[in-house]
Amino acid sequence: GVQTDSTGQYGVLYRPIHFVGLELNVSVLRAGLNGQATGCPTGFLGDIVTIAKRDLAAGEVLDGEGGYLVYGALRPAADGLKTGHLPIGLARGMRLARPVAAEHPVRWSDIMYEATDPIIKLRRCLAANLYTFPRLCLYPLKTPQRLPEGFVIGPAERGRDSGGLPAFKPIRQMLLTSSPYTHFHF
Predict the structure, then answer these.
(1) 44-114 in CATH: which number?
(2) pTM value?
(3) Is beta strand 145-146 parallel, antiparallel or unpaired with respect to 111-112?
(4) Which of 10-14, 91-95, 142-146 has the lowest mean pLDDT?
(5) Where in the chain do CATH 3.90.1210.10 domains reside?
(6) Which of 35, 78, 94, 175 has the most CB atoms at less than 10 Å from its CB?
């Protein structure tokens, strides 16, 4: 069976594995050929926060998802933001400023980071607009959505590739390819 909420309308299916090589292709093809987003959130409702697998010492560098030091745990987005939990997608490469006990969440205050990093700024924008940020999908948007530093998400980025198929100009290609959000579709 599938675990559902109290209304029985929404369910969560846990799979201990997933097939990125297959799932990504389906998402890309649906987006490129049919203009349909897959797995598109309707809002920022949940967040995967970073939890220490063992006692971590100050100065250790986190290995992120699938590593030996931390794992991700689903939390309501509002709770994670209120308590300052570090999203697991941003954990890789972060150096701890203070120790974190096993099975405790890693918080922003526990790590050293550059506030000017574009990914950190994008995350802060999302967090600041928890209840007002529109759907994070390119296709359903009717007007471009403005983000810090001139980032634009929306039809303004739409174009055609050399084969005449719909293509979407990456939002700051350098930003996406050098971050944990490489495959995150806005």
Answers:
(1) 3.90.1210.10
(2) 0.56
(3) unpaired
(4) 142-146
(5) 44-114
(6) 94
